[in-house]
Write a structure and sequence with these properties.
The chain is mostly helical. It has one domain: Cytochrome C Oxidase, Chain J (Irregular), CATH 4.10.91.10. Helices cover 69% and strands 0% of the residues. It has 3 helices and no strands. The N and C termini lie far apart (67 Å).
């Protein structure tokens, strides 16, 4: 029973590795292209949306933190 487990594990990993296509050269061409875009939005619409969501959450969190710091400095903040 113990000898079957490593054989099954290696078989599972080698099967998926053979089916995967190497897309690294495609991604290198995409991200190294000189099109004037920053690298964090070169991936397309999904990257732009994720970037904007991240920046919105970051700015909202910073503003919220600054608001509560201001409230902590005031003697009567509700």
């Amino acid at each position: 029973c113990n000898r079957k487990l490593p054989r099954l594990a290696t078989r599972a990993f080698t099967t998926t590795a053979r089916q995967m296509k190497n897309r690294v050269p495609e991604h290198q061409k995409l991200f190294q292209a000189d099109n004037g875009l920053p690298v964090h939005i070169k991936g397309g619409t999904t990257d732009v949306v994720l970037y904007r969501i991240t920046m919105t959450i970051t700015l909202a969190g910073t503003g919220y933190s600054l608001f509560w710091l201001l409230c902590a400095c005031q003697p009567t903040c509700k």
